[in-house]
Amino acid sequence: MSAIETASATLQSHVAANPYPGRGLVIGKSTSGDAWQQVYWIMGRSPNSRNRQFSLDGATLSTEPFDPSKVEDPSLIIYEAMLELPGQFLVSNGDQTRTLCDGLAAGKSMRQALSVRDREPDAPNYTPRITGMLDLRGDSPEIALSILKANKINPTYSDRHYYYPQEPATGIGYGLTTYMDDGNPLPTFNVDPILLPLATTAEKTLELYWNALDPENRISLAVKEITLDGSSSRTILRNKYKK
């Protein structure tokens, strides 16, 4: 099976046939090879998790309440999901996006910046913090992925996993999700980054993932398209709920 076939099969098994992979991110190259893409989606089971949407301010993608009057606990659902520094493009499932951005701006590495963070404090799920970075400042593009998740023996501690994969082939991205499947408690993502497909344009990639995500639990989806040299980007999004 080719890498493209593997990525397409994983999209089917881990996303399309899975009612709840949770939040997810993908970083890779478009099928045409003329742009980078970052994908980020959110899902929700509880009323609090479903009461949100994406908003875009310049290059910053954030989550915000759909109905502010119904917010129960904003601490884990309201955050900046995509941020940029010159030549660096960040995406995560929580406010560690800001932690990483500020750390990088201060000269820290990804590991150093995220060393002050832990898995989310939402027992019994202990949702992992998943983070991705595309660095286009050097001669060769670099992708870095991080997942901070509860220690299997004592969940009060966090295990820290970092991945630095090779540049992917066109049409393929490296992906992380927060969960393996639905459940109570939710089963933490427990494998290496998975290969997932990307389309020719941001619009086609958005359609690909929106159609794959469970219609009942999907909430919002965004795709950032980045020039190969990192000189510019554009982001498109779709929210389930419309005011």
Task: Describe the protein in words.
This protein has one domain (3-239): Inosine monophosphate cyclohydrolase-like (Glutamine Phosphoribosylpyrophosphate, subunit 1, domain 1, 4-Layer Sandwich), CATH 3.60.20. The protein is built from five helices and 13 strands. A hairpin with a 6-residue loop joins strand 7 and strand 8 (142-150). The chain starts with a helix and ends with a strand. It is α+β, with helices and mostly antiparallel strands. The mean pLDDT is 96. The strands form two sheets. The chain has a seven-stranded antiparallel sheet with strand order 3-4-5-6-7-8-9.
Could you tell me the strand content as a percent range?
A: 25-35%
Sheet/helix structural class: alpha+beta
How are helices and strands ordered from N to C?
Answer: HEEHEEEEHHEEEEEHEE
Largest sheet: 7 strands, antiparallel
CATH structural architecture: 4-Layer Sandwich
How many separate structural domains?
A: 1
- The beta-strand count equals 13
Q: What would you call the shape?
A: globular
Helix content: 10-25%
Low-confidence residue ranges: none
Mean pLDDT: 96
Largest sheet: spatial strand order: 3-4-5-6-7-8-9
Number of helices: 5
Indicate the radius of gyration in whole angstroms: 17 Å
CATH superfamily: Inosine monophosphate cyclohydrolase-like
Q: How many angstroms separate the termini?
A: 44 Å
